[in-house]
């Protein structure tokens, strides 16, 4: 019997080889195995082509067999793109899934596993296909089918860190949060505060918060390094039907170049966001629906990745973590080594609640009142910074647009009018005015050039400002969740104190909660401190760069005008 | 019996002391004698005030007595503002007369004589009242009542030199132009070519055209001078009800300061335009309907007058002519001397046709084919220059507007956004970032300043360009008439040659026409040569000035940015 699928949504082909499908249309499949998120099939009119696997449901008698899972490390059923009854109600909570390669979504989505292709490094992912979320030791992930299964990263709501959700097994006297969608719960913060996290912390995993001049801070990376991102090159695969861009990464601590694709960054991002509940993992530059291979986009993405890499290598914790080191160092041609590291990262136990186990704090516990006031101050600060960054971004964006269109047009119109005047003057039949005519003509050209200068300038000074703002807008979107985790912990402390006073909890247990809240608070304040430090560093550098570019621009304009002025000397 | 007048048009009072009147409203007058073109009267509601004399007709039994004329030097009836039956039909050919002081017309109008006030130097004129056109030796001026009586100067049509109209008395065999409105006729060119002009040319009136490197040119002024225009001050008169601006003129050849009002310039302009048929008399800066006493306008008019004066003193013929010298030298406090010179100028016989009598030409007569080709080339040139000046003027005007509004706004928006960011950053509670916050705030201020620079700049560089273009647009409007006169003369030559061939004219008469056409051609080519020379001089200087100002502007912007950049040094 032919394998068939029913379209869940309309899909319009945008590239050769793709097949448009209509909702409810039944298609004949060649294989139920998707390639890069695409299935190949034939419609009733005999047309053959590729369509997104997530746009169809495979029709079969036995719904249970839909759970295609090549991963045997866990007995948990994995979330699949095959609806199995509950799919449609679930998708109501999220937007219609996008086509894997040319979709418009901007966040790594986890609703579409790479069925059975975990081990197939070369062919399993495209830029917008996603990686399998292999259930590690944290049980029950994605088993919840009431709406929070396929979560999304990097949305501007507070659900952006909703990855490391923990099913708690204990029944502590301090009550658990009833809202299982709360970031505090999902991040593992609650589980950790309630003493439910456990794991063996290797020496290499230990993360130190030290007391610095301005409060708790992450211990500096004793081996700081940076990493360059060069030469994005286009590669093709899948008989040339699918292409991708490969970036050359060269970390300064190895000096060995590795090739990485955007999807590798995406995979890394997912690991980091899952692992670190109170660290602001920089957001990746956004995906783009179309024109992925256009030079402008490639150049822009590369710049975004450079900023991202800069924030990664600048972060004392992120820079040193295993998965990032694996990403930077694993030889791109040695598939086995890569896969080994990839699996290891995906099985990392020290994620979410367990991450807090790895943190060692300064000897003196923090004054929670002081912490609370600092956190509240920071909350106010991030709100203001977010508002003013948005405003600046809008202004700068408009300013760039004006320079590219309006300013350019005005200067060029002036240039053209001067040239028209010089052309009229050339008809004067007077030999003694030819010098003037040439000079005016040159002035016209100068103004046309200045128009060009204006239109070229934003890419040199305003675009980098916007890139920086985009990165910081990502951080600012992370912090509400980070603050939420800390505030959740503090609430538990207050509750536990009350319980102790009411005799419902013994003092030791409350002290444990207090101690663990201290760990979360130290980590949160260290992260805030780190944020301020890189912010001052980045904005200082960026403002300097912007002003230097502006000065160079106005000097160039001045130089052009001086050149024009000289033409009148011997007129 | 009370003196009464009927309103011919609606008049809305715009200033204290003025009285609004409705068309056909009957007003009681205090006197039929207007003051500065204003009459004082009372309406039916008992309201008293001033209204323009030209807006009303005085009601009386004897229409003949309407011809109020204090000038006894001629027996010819003078054109008056009192309708005398034919007024209304005549005004249909022209626009409704404007209020004398606050009218919007931009040309000196001659339809309103200063009734009996010729001798009253202090009170006879306001800026927009006009001077009596005293009929001189040229008979019949303004006696034609068929529509071309009140002519206007400085309109962009070819009627702009329609002043020195001549009624011819001879009946030459070369036919006269049937179109008596033709510039050739009105300028006196035809009368001169036909040998109808006669007069005694004093040595001092002689004007030489010499053969220069590039063809005929005006003999240089052996005593070149310039004249400064300073300190426009507001003066009041008429019990403070009327005000005017007085300019201080200091010619370099006398070093004696004289005070002149716009109306004096206006009077002078009328004399010059009447006197010189083939000389492009620079147009005065335009009048303004309202805001005559606002600083901007006064400053702008002064600049316009400076340009005008520059073109007057630069012109070898205009600079030396008696009426201009009288204007520059007559002591403003010695009324008698002024009036004497004024009357003398108004009685000048060497105007129009007779002007050509004063011209002496180079010994070798011109080749008329060569002249025709040069004139045609110049005609093409003026058309192109007119088009491109108009285009440049529109562009520059728009560019100024953009800088004052759009550019300023964009830079200030950027400035404000930087300041908002610095204000947000000030909430960060981090001591180490205060330097950055101050630097960003300073950068914000710098961008707000740059916005101001942009809005202030056009008055420094674009406005002077527009002033220059306005002056040249005036010249370009003059040349069609000048060319017309020369072409008319050339046509007469061709006609006369034909007539000689046909035996209708004797050779001597034809030679006279040829000779007189040579005089007109020499003068025309000399004027064209002069135009090109000052054009090259003016545009060279103006373009240099513009570029220098632009360079200074961009350097100022650069300096401001460098100042801002320095603030980041110790951050």
TrEMBL record, chains A, B:
GO terms for biological process: cleavage furrow formation; endocytosis; endosomal transport; mitotic cell cycle; plasma membrane tubulation; protein transport. A 1,2-diacyl-sn-glycero-3-phospho-(1D-myo-inositol-4,5-bisphosphate) binds at residues 261, 263, 301. Residues 92-116, 149-173 have a biased composition (Polar residues). Residues 225-335 form the PX domain. It is found in: Cytoplasmic vesicle membrane. Keywords: Cell cycle, Cell division, Cytoplasmic vesicle, Endocytosis, Membrane, Mitosis, Protein transport, SH3 domain, Transport. Its main location: membrane. Coiled coil: none annotated. One of its GO terms (molecular function) is phosphatidylinositol binding. It is a peripheral membrane protein. Pfam families: BAR_3_WASP_bdg, PX, SH3_9. Residues 66-173 are annotated as: Disordered. PROSITE patterns: PX, SH3. InterPro entries: AH/BAR_dom_sf (IPR027267), PX_dom (IPR001683), PX_dom_sf (IPR036871), SH3-like_dom_sf (IPR036028), SH3_domain (IPR001452), Snx9_fam (IPR014536), Sorting_nexin_WASP-bd-dom (IPR019497). Residues 117-127 have a biased composition (Acidic residues). GO terms for cellular component: cytoplasmic vesicle membrane; plasma membrane. SUPFAM superfamilies: PX domain, SH3-domain. Residues 1-61 form the SH3 domain. Belongs to the sorting nexin family. This is Sorting nexin. It comes from Nothobranchius furzeri. The gene is SNX18A.
């Amino acid at each position: 019997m032919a394998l068939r699928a029913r379209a869940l949504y309309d899909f319009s082909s945008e590239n050769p080889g793709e097949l448009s499908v209509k909702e409810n249309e039944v298609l004949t499949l060649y294989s139920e195995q998707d390639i890069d998120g695409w299935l190949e099939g034939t419609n009733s009119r005999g047309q053959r082509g590729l369509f997104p696997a997530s746009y169809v449901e495979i029709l079969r008698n036995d719904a249970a067999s839909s759970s295609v899972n090549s991963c045997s490390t866990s007995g948990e059923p994995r979330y699949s793109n095959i609806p199995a009854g509950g799919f449609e109600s679930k998708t109501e909570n999220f937007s219609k899934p996008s086509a894997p390669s040319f979709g418009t979504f901007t966040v790594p989505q986890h609703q579409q596993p790479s069925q059975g292709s975990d081990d197939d490094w070369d062919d399993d992912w495209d830029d917008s296909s996603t990686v399998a979320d292999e259930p590690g030791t944290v049980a029950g992930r994605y088993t919840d089918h009431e709406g929070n299964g396929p979560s999304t990263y990097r949305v501007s709501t507070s659900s952006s860190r909703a990855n490391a959700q923990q099913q708690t097994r204990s029944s502590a006297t301090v009550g658990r949060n009833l809202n299982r969608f709360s970031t505090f719960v999902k991040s593992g913060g609650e589980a950790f505060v309630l003493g439910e996290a456990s794991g063996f912390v290797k020496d290499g995993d230990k993360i130190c918060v030290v007391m610095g001049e301005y409060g708790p801070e992450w211990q500096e990376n004793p081996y700081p390094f940076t990493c360059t991102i060069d030469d994005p090159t286009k590669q093709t695969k899948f008989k040339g039907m699918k292409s991708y861009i490969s970036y050359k990464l060269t970390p300064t601590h190895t000096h060995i170049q590795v090739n990485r694709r955007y999807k590798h960054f995406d995979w890394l991002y997912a690991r980091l966001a899952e692992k670190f509940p109170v660290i602001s993992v920089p957001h990746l530059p956004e995906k783009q629906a179309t024109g992925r291979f256009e030079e402008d986009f490639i150049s822009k993405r590369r710049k975004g990745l450079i900023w991202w890499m800069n924030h990664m290598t600048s972060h004392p914790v992120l820079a040193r973590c295993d998965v990032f080191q694996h990403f930077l160092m694993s030889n791109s041609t040695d598939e086995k080594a890569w896969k080994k590291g990839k699996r290891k990262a995906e099985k990392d136990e020290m994620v979410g609640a367990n991450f807090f186990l790895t943190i060692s704090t300064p000897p003196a516990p923090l004054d929670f009142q002081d912490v609370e006031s600092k956190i509240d101050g920071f909350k106010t600060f991030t709100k203001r910074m977010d508002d003013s960054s948005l405003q600046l971004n809008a202004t700068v964006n408009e300013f760039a647009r004006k320079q590219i269109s309006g300013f350019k047009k005005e200067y060029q119109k002036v240039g053209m009018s001067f040239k028209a005047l010089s052309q009229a003057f050339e008809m004067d039949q007077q030999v003694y005015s030819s010098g003037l005519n040439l000079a005016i003509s040159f002035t016209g050209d100068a103004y046309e050039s200045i128009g060009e200068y204006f239109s070229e300038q934003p890419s040199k000074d305003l675009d980098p400002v916007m890139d920086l703002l985009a990165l910081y807008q990502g951080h600012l979107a992370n912090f509400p969740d980070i603050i939420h985790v800390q505030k959740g912990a503090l609430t538990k402390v207050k509750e536990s104190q009350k319980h102790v006073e009411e005799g419902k909890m013994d003092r030791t247990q409350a002290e444990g909660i207090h101690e663990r809240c201290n760990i979360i608070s130290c980590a949160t304040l260290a992260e805030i401190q780190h944020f301020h430090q890189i912010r001052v560093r980045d904005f200082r550098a960026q403002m300097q760069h912007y002003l230097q570019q502006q000065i160079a621009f106005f000097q160039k304009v001045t130089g052009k005008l001086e050149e024009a002025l000289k033409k009148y000397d011997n007129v």
